[in-house]
Amino acid sequence: MKENTGKSKYVMLGMLARMPLTGYTIKKWLENEYSHFWQESYGQIYPTLKTLVAQGLAVCSDNGEHGNGRGQIVYSITEAGRKELSDWMREKPEIEKLRYEILLKISFGENTESEVLIGHLDDFIKRNEELVKDMNRYMEQITQFKDQGIDCTYSRLTALCGVHVYSAMKDWAIEARKIISEKGEL
């Protein structure tokens, strides 16, 4: 289970500020749009939505008249929710915490063979290449929302950050691989 940072309610409010959503749609957006920079436990989605409703920051349809036609509950942000989100947006962001296990393993590299580290780096390079492709595909997909009158500028910016971060990590791994390979040839 991912660490609950207390920011789950802001993630949900931000998503609901765009449009009314079901819990399932929120889960899918978390997987697609946010996973490269923010992780939420899927076990937090419905409890958080329930809390938002209890606090008057969101409302939910009942299964009948306001639902999406499939018996799913649709959640919408309230004015109080918009104010809560706006207040949080004005707060200074917390300092980011970076955790890459591969960096730990490289930093302790003298404790294994070069081939082991090169194998880890090769996997890391492939993974980051795929992540760059995923972010580029996502940026192409969100253009469909523009046709529906939804401004995706900010979603595109977060995906663009993913492209840059994953590209930089791939470039680092290629360079690290070269350095380790050259060290092994000495």
Automatic annotation (TrEMBL):
InterPro entries: Tscrpt_reg_PadR_C, Tscrpt_reg_PadR_N, WH-like_DNA-bd_sf, WH_DNA-bd_sf. The lineage of its organism: Bacteria, Bacillati, Bacillota, Clostridia, Lachnospirales. Residues 121-148 form a coiled coil. Residues 98-180 form the Transcription regulator PadR C-terminal domain. It holds the Pfam family PadR. Residues 12-86 form the Transcription regulator PadR N-terminal domain. This is PadR family transcriptional regulator. SUPFAM superfamilies: Winged helix' DNA-binding domain. Keywords: Coiled coil. Gene3D superfamilies: Winged helix-like DNA-binding domain superfamily/Winged helix DNA-binding domain.
